[in-house]
Design brief:
The complex is a heterodimer of chains A (386) and B (209). By secondary structure, chain A is an all-alpha fold. Chain A is built from 15 helices and no strands. Chain B is globular, with a radius of gyration of 20 Å. The relative contact order of chain B is 0.10. Classes of the chains: A mainly alpha (386), B mainly alpha (209).
Amino acid sequence: MDTRDPKANASKAADELGRHQRVLDAYLAHSGSDPMPPPALDAKLLALAARAVNSTNTVPAGVETNFASGDANGFRSIKTNARARRRRWPFALAASVATIGFVAILARTNFQDTEGYGEPIYQASKYEVPGAAADQAPATAPLQEATLDSSREQSAAASMPGSADKAKMSQKRTIEQAIGRISAAPESPAPEPVDPETTDAAVARPIVPAAASAPASMPAEESDLAVSKLGTPSADLQAADTRSRRSSMDAAPAVNLAAENAVVETAEAPVPMSKTIEQLAAAEEEKAASTASNKVQASQAPQATMRSEPAQSGASAPLDDATKKDEFAPDAQSDAANPHAKTYTAIRVLRDSGEVMKAGAMLARFQKAYPQVQLPEDLAALAKAN
Amino acid sequence: MSLLATTLHLYLSAAAVLAPVLTAASDESLMQAYSAGDTRAFEVLYTRHRGPFWRYLTRLIGSSAEGEELFQDAWQRVIVARESYVSAGANAEATGSPFRAWLFRIGHNLAMDRLRHKNIAPESSMDDNVLQFPAHSDAEPEHMSISAEAHQRLMQSLAELPAEQREVVLLRAEGELSLEEIGVLTGHGRETVKSRLRYALAKLKQSLA
């Protein structure tokens, strides 16, 4: 642009402005004037303007307003609502995703249960009494069948697509059928009512050793005798034990087995010290009594011998001598002509076997007991040699 | 009865006489009348500026929904600030601050606040409501298809303009503001506005060629 020529510059500027104006005219011609705000928005703005100027002014006919109070706050609320609608979608999306996830987790859990990966809802083995399976076989059989049927139905239901609810319903129906079978099944023989006294006695029998307990086949009287030989703390306990054994042998095998187990377990329990001392004291008393009775019998026997042989022993012979004489006393089967033949034979056997000292000692005791007896020649020579 | 008929006749006559007067009145006088309580003056003022102001906001933002919000906000501010406008701009026409420039300044400030709040540049593409072509019932189908295609290219070129150039074009075309008014409104000098306008119109001309 030539700045030295104002006319030329003005002409160029006019041409440029003209070109711009033509573009603007084209813009206006192409853009048109129809893009306008919505009529509802026009009505709201006009109503707002009317109420803002004079509260007594009425809203023009045909104008719908959402203004509750009629002031500018109503307009603000409309704008805020429009803004809130646009900003609400992220929260709606998050809520939808959370809901879908929760439902998916719930469906996954149910699917695991029906497929067997998770813990089954019902397990018959949980409700069986340990150790009583043999006795309650008729009662548990429907449960086992129910479990098998339930697993079959569950596997069949799980193989069908989208049938978690069906599997649950079939499982519930199977459980109901199992309950019906249990109620309809023949009742097993009722166990013999347990006597509390017997049970307590069987459990509280601690002093019977396991090795000394009578076998199950032993008669009741023998078992009682065996127990009495070992000694029991009281007669009541012994009687209770007897009753327990009889009841256990008459009862069902499972119950008998349980009783035997109870006996073994209680026999291995530690023995109370007080009862052991009492038993030892009683045994000592019995032993002392038996020893005293033996001494009395022994003291009576030499006297009879001395009466039968008054010439051989004095009236005042001591008790030891009588005991020694009794060692070589002839028995009823001895020969009358030679009543000490057995003694002589015993001494000769000792001498011949090389135990000359023992033979000499025995011979010396014999001579001391029977000094008037004439020894045979060989034994007399042995006596002289000693 | 005769009194009521006479009153109604006088009212209708006055309305028939005042309607052309209001329509021909300037924006500033209409604003003064509205501030005095004449809602009819506001209706005339609103009807006069609603189209250009609507197109300016929607095409500047690039979204009809956000443009609608800005449109409502701007007119609410006009309603609330009617008395302050009248007291401060009693001689608005004399000082060169007409109502149109004031209205578009409100819209410009709201649009810049919105863009600054969103921390994004103005939309480089416009939604369908902004791009919609006016339907003329008397237009021939062939002419309508050609015009629709030219309109589509023009709107696409306008959306692809830088924000400063786009705003200058819209203020010049829709607001019919002078370069000085645009400079005052945007805070730039006249030459800057003129340069931006020249570049923008050159690009739009290429799209129309």
